[in-house]
Amino acid sequence: MTGSSLRAKDTGTPGTTAETTRPPRRRASRVLRWTALALALLLLGTATAGYLYYRHLNGNLAKAPLNLGDSPNPAATPDAAGRTPLNILLIGSDSRNTADDLELGGSKGDVGRPPLADVQMLLHVSADRNDMSVISLPRDTMIPIPRCTDPVTKKVYPELSLAMANESLGRGGPGCTVATWMRLTGIPVDHFMMVDFSGVVAMADAIGGVPVCVEQNVYSHTADGHGSGLRLKAGTTPVKGKQALQWLRTRYGFEDGTDVGRTHAQHMYMNSMVRQLRADATLGNPTEMRRLAEAATSALTVDDGLGTVKKLYDLTTELQKVPTERITMTTLPTTPWAQDNNRLVPATEDADKLVSMVRDDVALDGRDTKKPKPTETDPAAPAADITVRVQGGTGAGLESPAPDRAGAVAGLLRDRGFTRTVTDRAATTEPGTSVLYSGTTLRGDALAVAEALGIPAARVRAVDDARDVTLVVGADWPSGDRFPEPAKREVPKSAAVLGGAKTDACMKIQEGYTW
Q1: Comparing C-alpha atoms, which of 94, 70, 92, 271 is closest to residue 157?
Q2: pLDDT tens digit string along 418-468?
């Protein structure tokens, strides 16, 4: 995984009412339909929209800062048309700090403890809005968590070089989970959406049920009291309310009994809900959808940039552009952790492949359209006049760093006429090979450096603190004279791809959990 090295211990968070003019019923139904589409994502901690004409819903929304880490949010690279991808982090909290949440899971001993981010999904919408990719991170994955500052108490949580992924939420709030994802993947996060147990149930009840399928009868329960309690007959069953929550939480009984199987079940649920909401005309009923919107906005915590139903609606109009069949869901490839087989770590090579495709805005369904080359207005200086700093980032992931890789690439540049190239020994957490620059006058120079080494223009981007033109040689380029960009990039099989057009998916049942 191309984030930061993992070296440490395994360590265990009245609306106002306004009168407005009601739009015509046909317009209202269309708005409600797309609201329903967005709510399909919300049940996994995801995106939603509200009614433009129900301004009191603004008061239902809880808000929190987007990024609690020390590092700024990296800027996305626009395509030739000036469009940028959209990235939303979807968080499901296991908080037991309300009576409703406690009734749905956990013990009284859990009251007051920091919440855990038990569901984490990064939703990536391509710059051209033709496709959508989702990466799930199993909650048991051991990853670095950056230093975060609580926006209310101002408490500073120190950096953890290795901890369970779900711990980030309790270190100041969802903005720390956002910071963790940005450090891990290098993908800029535009927004987050978070929902807790009781919110999932409230919305599932409002929606009326989602069809799910199991290959055999299943009962998620163990003799010592573990399991979600889900009990279903073989085949397809519509689930809602508490039963829907059980489906989303089930680990024991699905596949191999690990957290990876749970993420696969969540993907099936999301796919089924998206298809149902897009096809079911009854969801255009304003009364039913009003109830759904009330439940959704009351359950959501969003970043400050999404703190109104108007902004949420605008987001939904972007999501609705993606055809259902172009939604691809994946799970970050992992492998058992050597120190504890009950924990996971990213599977370096496959995880890097998956994340780099999303970071570079490559469609995961293999139907990527040819992207036009941007027309550059900033000419490059002569190679001999361009100052380039080369930093080594091959050890930024789980692998060992390639010896003096920065020095080797600096030599390649000097051989190609960039005689003012120097090696910079400064530490970097930049994921993947990138060419960075600051200001508005060095883009042409940065593109010239990238072209000389075969680095895609999508890897060239502006940052606030780059000195001169800075080339980071990442873990995706450990050897060779040119950047190894393959003609066609494929999602690794270990990512467990599930496409939006898949209508016959059924969960495999773990041995010993049938009845």
Answers
A1: 70
A2: 999 999 887 776 767 889 998 778 889 999 999 999 998 878 888 777 778
